[in-house]
């Protein structure tokens, strides 16, 4: 089905009914061609156009030319006589007829003699003429037959296909006479072929008989050979065979390699990769199983044997759920000439150990079952003996006392072991923990445990409350992260601070990776509170104190948990800003403040180690720290001062105590002033060296470190410093001086620059606008022809596009007409069928009546 044609023809019909005056006066039919500019004295023919009129003229012209050609395409309405010489006026009619007859005879002759061979040519095969060779249509059907096999004899054919009566009936005298006459006359080719077939059959039967006779003789000879072969074999005696060991053939290298390949390990398929949810589920199940085993050991039950032991069911068991915990049967034994009942002793022991719990009773039950098993084994052993049990009864009665004593000793030992096992199970950490709901719950859970145990508790709490195991676990673990941060701060504030426990509690990294948004908010709140308190202190007092140890640890944890190389990060960027503010606004008033500032400098270097971001507060603080070790000070940037009470904190008093100094870690409670001063100075020089390595690629490297270079080379006396610090000082000066100068200073040029040559422009007056000047006549003619060619080419393309659109519309009209005709015919057929069906139904109803 095609699309409906556009209703452009309707406007054409209306336009045809109008006169030319009406069209020209109608403003909707007129198109005004605007000009770029008016030229005086020039008359234009195309100021006003009539697109509707031109379109209708073009459509009518195409209908008369292009549409007619399209409809007459692949159609011929005239006959063309293609006979020979029909349009040749020079030939006579007789010559035309003769030539036509000759051509017809040649055409027929060529068709007949396509497969005929020329009689004059003689075809040969291996030098013999094909005409003289005999024609034998032999068909060989089997490999066992000879060359002449495969053809049927006349008798056989007659017997199989002639009814079978020709060979059995007697020949009459007339037939015998015909045979004699046939023998006297010459044999035909068919008779010769039949004789040849008969001979071949005869030879075949003879060969078959010979083959069967040879087969019978061969079988007979084989049977006789088997009878003789038993007499020819020489048997060796057993003694000789025992003396001569059998020589086994040596195995070939190939056989050995094949056997080795058989014992090699074959590749086994690996297990599928498990999802994090499956791993968390398995870990939780493992912890629950270990916790159940620990609780069972606390209660005194056996863990290993109880889970794996199988319960024996008797053949008389009714399977009604009744379990006999103890045997009611009493064990009879003699001790000191009196009866000894094991059950009474067991009851007494139970009465003594009731306070210990259920573990002892379980152990006694197990011991009773062991004794009963021993009794059963003894009974089984006595049953297996044939008749000697009565002889051994005396020996058994003598050894009963020894067995009872050993059983009592074993019983007491197992009780002690069971008690020790219960105590060990009670002292063990639980394997599953509930997530704490508050900070006090976390403190109670971790109180009294070592640092390793606290790490285990946090890890097991995290595994037991994985978010994939329950719906509310995600919120619980997010709270746990905040509680752990608060707990780390409390550990840092204690005196002395528990740094080893803080080091072990870096399990918060896994929680941070699991919940980055919650971790980000927690750290942002801590940093925001610290920055707010610093701003309040600065506004109130004009200066602020250095951050305490808990805040320094929080800054270190931030560097461990979050990336520091990002250009902008919601956690590390505020942390770096806080460090910069602390290095700028906090004055140094003691060695403790200086130590806190150097720790902040170490953290700042760690933050910028990957990004190599320039931090001017870091360089300023290191330069100020070096000024504290110099007496003649130059200009210093705040928070340091050139003079005052705290301006000479690192100035060394005696050089003798400094010579024996070596770099080592100092405890937080160190009181020796000289060692602390040298340690701070060493840390400062080490940080300066690291900053030199970080910023050595900067263009302004020499200018940044110029104050530090001047301070180290001129003001700091290296004679009073120990040898390690002198070495650090020389390395820093060498790295600063070896930096290449990447730029030169700006100076005025000595000579003025030479200006470029200025050429006077060539002015050409153009009087006639639109005409191109400055070319020959031939070039102008060539340009005119090119312009005309382009114009005609564009016009031809435009007309071709219009023709193709016109043909497309016509084809669409044809399709629409065909579809409408088909619909009309289908409608007529359906109407006639409906009429027939209605008549048939009316006739059917009429018959029913």
From TrEMBL:
Location in the cell: Nucleus, Nucleolus
One matching Pfam family: Nop14
Region (Disordered), start-end ranges: 138-219, 263-308, 333-407
GO biological process: maturation of SSU-rRNA
Keywords: Nucleus, Ribosome biogenesis, rRNA processing
GO CC list: Noc4p-Nop14p complex; small-subunit processome
Keyword Nucleus: yes
Compositional bias segments (type: Acidic residues): 342-403
Biased composition (Basic and acidic residues): 182-219, 263-300
Major subcellular site: nucleus
PANTHER family: NOP14, NUCLEOLAR PROTEIN 14
UniProt family annotation: Belongs to the NOP14 family.
Function summary: Involved in nucleolar processing of pre-18S ribosomal RNA. Has a role in the nuclear export of 40S pre-ribosomal subunit to the cytoplasm.
Designated name of the protein: NOP14 nucleolar protein homolog (yeast)
